[in-house]
Design goal:
494 residues, mainly alpha, 3-stranded antiparallel β-sheet, two-stranded parallel sheet, single chain
Length: 494
Amino acid sequence: MSTVNVRTRFAPSPTGYLHVGGARTALFNWLYARHHGGTFVLRIEDTDLERSTEESVTGILEGLEWLGMTWDEGPGQGGDFGPYFQSDRLDIYRHYVQQLLDEDKAYYCYCTPEELKSRRQEALAQGNDPKYDRRCAQLTAAQRQALNDEGREPVVRFRSSDQGSTEVNDLIRGQIIFDNQMLDDFVILKSDGMPTYNFAVVIDDHLMRITHVIRGDDHISNTPRQIQVYKALGFPVPEFAHLPMILGSDKTRLSKRHGATSVTDYRDAGFLPEALVNYLALLGWSYSATDTLFTEEELIEKFSLDRVSRNPAVFDMKKLEWMNGVYLRELDPERLTDLVIPELQKGNLLPESVDEAAREQVKQIAIALQSRIRTLAEFAPSSYYFFVDEIKYDSKAVEKFLYRDYVPAMFDLLLDKLTKVEPFAEANIEKAFKEVQEKVGRKLGDVIQPVRVAVTGTRVSPGMYEVLAALGQPRTCHRLKKATEMAKKGLAAQ
């Protein structure tokens, strides 16, 4: 364990859902804190008042809770370094803005957006860097008063150092050196009194005693600006670690077309939280070339930043579905049943209230299908024929398997046997099939496949004896009688 009291944070902006990239960032922060016996902080960066919504906050909290990433400090948990919503910390930011103004490390800027745009275009036309030209940096008190009298509402700019360089010793990427001449005097307080990201994040991370800032590599360019603010305020600089980008299967930036929907959408699509956590951990991190399946405890034990790649990670939906299928196959029957019942209710295959007998039937069917599905959402369409009176038939399967000359007579024999089976259990059903097979003198598959089409409407299902036992004697016999008539009509029409 580290001798440093490790404190990490996840600080989402509630302007949208918790997506795959955000969830991966949260996970790596959570794993690092847990591995070192430290503290994981959740902070909501909601200073963008126009775009921040309560709905987004709820979605972020729900997503993290579903994934099992419990936070030690933050919304709903409290803590010694709150508030944990930036919109409740505005007085704190203004205090530090004033400190920088008093120390001449920041200044008021009265340039209008139109003026700034015009100057940027002019600089670009002349082949110059379009950064701020500092024309407000040396305004006198009288000049500021005159601009105030005009009704101009100033912003506050940080007085960046343009000498030398700023170094970042990134825990993933190693040393990164930024030429300070490339930095400009960026805004730290907007004219509406709201702090900008690069300023507020420094104040919050310092006051919340964050030791390790682990975030996406799209923040690398922000880091030298933030380090200059740390130093200007006399704050110790935390460790930085920038995670590799996540790409889609076509190697472009991950987007909705690659399946990058919200974490709660993955929940609703039938993925298990432990499978998604395992998969997210492998987006940029690996423990060995062969190990891919980890429990939460194993991830916490093995996680380290030195095993995080610098190269972009590729999000592969097929691999996630495969992994989810592995986790589904390992589920305890009772938990599997608990998860399957809501799926069947969503598909209107089960009533809202499920009694013990219905639950037992669902469990029997769930166990039969457990090795065949990759997501819980596949369960209802794969099992609907267990729960409805009338089924849909695959026309090609009917033509291939029911329109065989021996099928009507074979179904009659099987019906005679199955109506007498008591109890209607797998072993007894199997015995009836074997007796019919022997009587008709055909391979067992020639008996089973037409029956599968007759009772499920498809050519693929779990084991036939399992299916019939779960389907029950009345439905099995009803469907066989109906299929017998279908077979006779089909043969007569040929």
